[in-house]
From TrEMBL:
Protein name: ABC transporter ATP-binding protein
InterPro entries: AAA+_ATPase, ABC_transporter-like_ATP-bd, ABC_transporter-like_CS, ABC_transpr_CbiO/EcfA_su, Co_trans_ATP-bd, ECF_ABC_transporter_ATP-bd, P-loop_NTPase
Domain ABC transporter: 5-240
Protein's membrane topology: Peripheral membrane protein
Localization in the cell: Cell membrane
Biased composition (Basic and acidic residues): 396-419
Region (Disordered): 381-425
């Protein structure tokens, strides 16, 4: 796999200051999700500003897509087309009088034709769920909305790599999770995502790879499990372990675990505890997860499923799905960590429905199927309106009987958000 961005022995000092970066060697693989983690002043922002040539190393080299950045106007234009940078503070990024003008700024600068600009802006606003806000002044938006517009401004230039400095800082927990969902969506579309954060919970469950920085150096680059299970390393970086890792370690110290891989989510943690407690205690029969493609126009099959009363919980995953849920009058129970939450419900014997769109439909099916195989559970999965119920290995008997005895949940009028749970993955 190619490297999206490479830093080779990168040093950097702000004028009249000691070095903020002291020999950084890091490669970010194409298509990966990488978190730069470290305490205040570690050099995360400084390193991110190198990704699209906003800062130039005082020594060393930066390569984007295998090509060294040369810092002349042509090379910088090329790099900025490939790498989109979203600042920590959206107010520093948004300056035009309207949302539309703000998002159009990048494409305009790239010299796109009028029609192309319109198409790029519409597409980007749609992607982040901010269509309808075109005429609004950005400074009148909420923090979460500003962040989405800032992301749209970058997406309008169709970059291959997205770089976010502290994407969730100053956002409330639910908005932060929704922004992370959006980042996942963008990654599933094939983009590399690199972000900086102090939030160890976020980095632990989200990232494929973690780069731990301290005092302008990389202390370690590795898997989230390796980095967050190393107490001495975290101590050196003045960070604390994620809650799920803390629990895992305490239980390990009491001899309850025996070298199992540390879990990264509530789902994985629950499975681990259950297996050590002697296997399944309840509900041999798992629920079915139905998936509805929110990009589709026909909602007849969705109406039929909801009217059947078999769906105990509904999750909406991704911007398009959340918009569509609102248009259909559905109030979702889960709006983040949706697949894991529906898998947890399925294991407890409940049927659920996931609204999602585009490439996320296939991803959701794959993730459910992979979990069913991994856990040896018979979890039903089907795409609403497309295929009959499939069983990831199991029988369906008893399903209707159980649902007939349940109170029919009405997702079009009620529903609730789960409490924010730092462990939900
Ligand atoms: N514009 C600047 N001028 C001078 N020094 C700076 C500037 N920006 C950052 N620094 C210094 O560079 C070092 C690294 O700062 P940087 O902002 O990159 O760290 P960080 O890991 O992103 O920190 P934080 O998590 O607090 O945002 C710090 O010592 C900081 O004081």
């Amino acid at each position: 796999m190619r490297e999206a961005i490479e830093f080779q022995d990168v040093h950097f000092a702000y004028p009249n200051r000691p070095e903020s970066l002291r020999g950084i060697d890091v490669a970010v693989r194409e298509g990966s999700k990488v978190a730069l983690v470290g305490p205040n002043g570690a050099g995360k922002t400084t390193l991110l500003l190198m990704c699209n040539g906003m800062l130039r190393p005082t020594r060393g080299a930066v390569r984007v897509g295998g090509v060294p950045v040369h810092y002349d106007a042509r090379s910088l234009r090329e790099v900025r087309r490939k790498v989109g940078l979203v600042f920590q503070n959206s107010d520093a990024q948004l300056f035009a009088p309207t949302v539309w003008q703000d998002v159009a700024f990048g494409p305009l600068n790239l010299g796109m034709e009028k029609d192309e600009i319109k198409e790029a802006v519409d597409r980007a606003l749609h992607q982040v769920g901010m269509n309808g806000y075109e005429r609004r002044p950005p400074h009148h938006l909420s923090g979460g909305e500003k962040k989405r517009v800032a992301i749209a401004g970058v997406l309008a230039m169709e970059p291959e790599v997205l770089v976010f400095d502290e994407p969730t800082s100053a956002l409330d927990p639910a908005t932060a999770e929704e922004v992370m969902d959006l980042l996942d969506e963008l990654n599933h579309e094939g983009r590399t995502v690199l972000l900086s954060t102090h939030d160890v919970e976020l980095a632990y469950r989200w990232a494929d790879e973690v780069v731990l920085m301290e005092s302008g150096t990389v202390l370690r680059h590795g898997s989230p499990e390796t980095i967050f299970s190393d107490t001495a390393l975290l101590h050196q970086a003045r960070l604390k372990p994620p809650a799920v890792m803390d629990l895992y370690r305490e239980l390990s110290d009491r001899g309850l675990f025996n070298g199992e891989k540390p879990p990264r989510s509530a789902l994985a943690f629950t499975d681990l505890v259950e297996s050590l407690a002697g296997g399944r205690r309840y509900q041999d029969r798992c629920g079915t997860i139905s998936i509805w493609d929110a990009a589709g126009t026909d909602s007849t099959a969705l109406d039929t499923l909801l009217a059947s009363g078999t769906v105990a919980r509904v999750g909406a995953m991704g911007t398009r799905a959340k918009q569509r849920a609102s248009e259909e009058g559905i109030i979702p129970d889960f709006t983040y960590g949706v697949i894991d939450k529906c898998l947890l419900r399925a294991v407890a014997g409940e049927d659920s429905l996931i609204l999602t769109a585009g490439g996320m439909v296939a991803h959701t099916r794959e993730r459910i199927a992979a979990y069913a195989i991994e856990s040896g559970r018979e979890i039903g999965v089907r795409t609403v309106g497309r295929d009959p119920q499939e069983q990831a290995g199991g029988e369906t008997e008893g399903r209707e009987k159980r649902s007939n005895n349940e109170i029919v949940p009405d997702h079009r009028h009620s529903g609730h958000e789960d409490n924010i749970n730092g462990m939900a993955g």
